[in-house]
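Hi C.,

You asked whether I'd gotten around to modeling the 121-residue construct. I have! Everything is below, sequence then structure, no commentary in between.
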Amino acid sequence: QVQLVESGGGLVQPGGSLRISCAASGFTFSMYTMSWYRQAPGKERELVAAITAVGSITNYADSVKGRFTVSKDNAKNTLYLQMNNLKPEDTAVYYCKAVGARPGSFGRNYWGQGTQVTVSS
């Protein structure tokens, strides 16, 4: 059974830091490109950061460049998002997504259930 379980969300003050995680199971994690998306109330879901299957290439939304860092540990089947210098506009539900990137996984994609991040004083 495929599962993506996010954790680590919470309430943090502006300027603070938070690290959220996404634990994967039920599929070969190292074969998947992983991404973080977020969705704020009344807004569309947007891509925040992505990392290739082997973790060699990362991409970020302009709004988080220089503040957020995405990483994945293929040995632990876990995706991370380190968020520094958080702003109120970073408040959203954060979701992880897996997209197949190797033969045998093409066409497959999975979503987690999300974790709430609230930035407020």
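If it helps when you're writing up: The first strand starts at residue 3 and ends at 7.

Thanks,
B.
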